[in-house]
Structure formats: structure tokens, C-alpha cells
């Protein structure tokens, strides 16, 4: 007889419900307590909470992270198990990912699937909001520091792309329509229509989708794409070198050039400087591509296609956030339309 599903608990009820579960899963935690349970301020694609597990045998404590699906999805076809498996299987790779403890795929215990992983402490991060070009360690360091931070992210992307997905049992990340660019374009059309619901798509996004249809190609290489390869998804040590790569919700197999295009796009849309320019010391696009190509040992591929797909994917999330917050007279996705125009009108 199956256990009935629990209703989705309110945030304030989670620590008490989770405490008994954690005691069963963490060695030496039979009398441990959850303290300092707090919502992460970054990201909307997954609900993320940080907490301390105190009173372990021997008097120690442990920092942990709890993640569950969002109540309001900003991307279609959300799959928590996907990100859990990616991090679990990359643990044996050179890519520094958070250590996942366990995942409960069913709703019986806490109303939804959830996962628990180790928290990474004593690290530095950059933020998208407020933008890192204006606030925080990236803005406040010198030109050499910004170069180091940026190149650390680029080197992490290159390290991901040097992996053979088969070595880490990641073949399941192949899209249902295959790893071709046309499958990605079809997904983006579906995702945008899902996000806009019954409303018409922004004409610039229609233009971009049509451009993708007329610029299909066969990738020279298909590999593991991080999917969310941006500065704010890298944690750095005090020496400004990478310590961990975060957020694997949208990892997939495809043309890896898309990851570099995503980095360029997220950097451009987050910049408050004139012309969306980067802060001084940030390596240029050409310098970045050259460093990347040297690290992976081959040409970057069709990054132009990725330059168009990247803002379309971000637009899906921003259109949904517009709906979630009922922002009258504001179009969060307009920055994505401007990025598309910036790319296509550069022809």
C-alpha cells in the first residue's frame, strides 16, 4: 500500500519536518538539530534553502542545502532528478560540483521531490542582481582580479566540455528530439509558447525563431552543455580561483558553443554600463574565445547560433517572472529582445 502524498509544506514548517529525515540520513545525527534555516536569495528556477545541522556526535555541525521544485515554474518540464543525477555523476569528474547527499523523488515525505546536498562555505560569489559589474567582488577588485574571475569561469566551461559524457553515464541528457540544433530550436518555440500562454510572442522572438529555422546546421561536436554557464554560478576561493560549479537544472547534450554564448549573453544583459559594456579588465569576446579554444583544443563551433538561442531561453524565464509578479507596464524580457536585435542586426 503506497503512502499518501503530503501537501506541500509552507516554508516555515520545513525545518521541523526535515529534521527527523536528516537525522536518518546523516551519520552521527541522531540528536542533531536544524538551525539557521534560510531561503537562498539567488535564483527562481528551484527553491533553495541553506541550514546548519548542529549537535552532531562529537559536537560538530554540518552546513547543508535543501532544494525542491518551485511552486511557480519558470521553465517547462522541470525535473529535479535530472540535476541530482548530473551532480552525483560528475562527482567523479574533474568538475568541482556540490556533494549531493540524497534525493527523495516522491511527494510522500515533504509534498514534493527534494534533494539535500552539502553547503560550500568560505567562498566568494558574484551576483546577477545587483549586477556584478556594479556591485560586489567583481566590481570592487582591480582589472587583474576581474580578468582572473572571468577566466576562471571560462576555464570551468572548457573543463566541462572536455569531458566525454559517456564516461559519467550522462547520455540521458540527450534531448528527446536529439542533440541537433533544430531540436533546440523546436524546444525554444515550445517553451516560449508555454511561457506566453494565450498571448502572442514578442515579434523579435518570432524573428529569432524564424532565423534559427533557416540557419540549421550539423554540429562538428556534441558534448555536455552546462546550460547555465554564467559568472554567478561559479563559487570562488579567496584567491579568486573557482571552487565549485553550480546549478545543473538545464544541463543537456548539444553543441557546446552554446555554453560560451550563454556566458556572453548573461554578461551583456547584466551590465548596467553604457552599451551593456563589461567592467574594465574583463577579457573581450575574442580573447575569451581564444582562451577557450586553447583549453579545449578545437574551434569553438557555431557560436552564432548559440548567440540567438541564449536570449530566447532567458526570455522564457523572464516572461514567466513577469506573470508571477504581475508587473504591469514592465516587460522583463525586453532585455532579451534587445540582445536578439543586437546579435541579428550585426549581420
From TrEMBL:
Keywords: Transferase. One of its GO terms (molecular function) is transferase activity. Pfam families: APH. Residues 42-270 form the Aminoglycoside phosphotransferase domain. Signal peptide: none annotated. It comes from the Bacteria. The keyword Iron-sulfur does not apply. This is Putative aminoglycoside phosphotransferase. It comes from Mycolicibacterium chubuense (strain NBB4).
Amino acid at each position: 500500500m503506497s503512502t499518501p502524498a503530503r501537501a506541500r509544506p509552507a516554508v516555515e514548517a520545513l525545518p521541523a519536518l526535515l529534521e527527523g529525515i536528516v537525522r536518518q540520513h546523516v551519520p552521527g545525527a541522531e540528536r542533531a538539530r536544524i538551525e539557521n534555516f534560510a531561503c537562498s536569495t539567488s535564483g527562481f528556477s528551484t527553491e533553495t534553502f541553506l541550514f546548519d545541522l548542529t549537535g552532531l556526535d562529537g559536537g560538530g555541525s554540518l552546513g547543508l542545502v535543501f532544494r525542491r521544485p518551485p511552486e511557480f515554474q519558470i521553465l517547462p518540464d522541470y525535473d529535479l532528478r535530472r540535476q541530482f543525477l548530473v551532480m552525483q555523476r560528475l562527482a567523479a569528474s574533474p568538475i568541482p560540483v556540490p556533494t549531493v547527499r540524497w534525493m527523495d523523488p516522491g511527494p510522500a515525505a515533504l509534498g514534493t521531490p527534494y534533494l539535500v546536498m552539502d553547503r560550500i562555505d568560505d567562498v566568494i560569489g558574484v551576483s546577477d542582481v545587483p549586477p556584478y559589474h556594479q556591485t560586489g567582488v567583481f566590481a570592487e577588485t582591480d582589472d587583474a582580479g576581474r580578468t582572473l574571475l572571468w577566466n576562471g569561469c571560462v576555464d570551468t566551461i572548457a573543463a566541462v566540455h572536455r569531458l566525454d559524457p559517456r564516461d559519467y553515464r550522462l547520455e540521458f541528457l540527450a534531448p528527446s528530439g536529439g542533440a541537433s540544433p533544430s531540436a533546440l530550436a523546436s524546444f525554444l518555440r515550445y517553451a516560449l509558447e508555454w511561457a506566453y500562454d494565450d498571448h502572442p510572442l514578442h515579434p523579435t522572438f518570432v524573428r529569432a525563431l524564424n532565423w534559427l529555422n533557416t540557419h540549421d546546421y550539423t554540429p562538428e561536436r556534441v558534448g555536455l552543455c552546462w546550460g547555465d554557464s554564467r559568472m554567478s554560478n561559479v563559487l570562488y576561493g579567496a584567491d579568486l580561483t573557482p571552487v565549485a560549479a553550480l546549478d545543473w537544472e538545464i544541463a543537456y547534450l548539444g553543441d557546446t558553443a552554446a555554453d560560451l554564448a550563454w556566458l556572453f549573453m548573461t554578461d551583456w544583459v547584466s551590465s548596467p554600463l553604457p552599451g551593456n559594456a563589461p567592467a574594465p579588465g574583463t577579457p573581450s569576446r575574442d580573447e575569451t574565445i581564444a582562451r577557450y579554444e586553447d583549453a579545449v583544443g578545437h574551434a569553438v563551433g557555431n557560436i552564432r547560433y548559440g548567440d540567438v538561442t541564449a536570449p530566447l531561453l532567458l526570455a522564457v524565464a523572464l516572461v514567466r517572472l513577469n506573470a508571477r509578479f504581475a508587473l504591469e507596464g514592465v516587460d522583463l524580457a525586453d532585455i532579451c529582445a534587445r540582445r536578439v536585435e543586437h546579435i541579428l542586426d550585426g549581420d
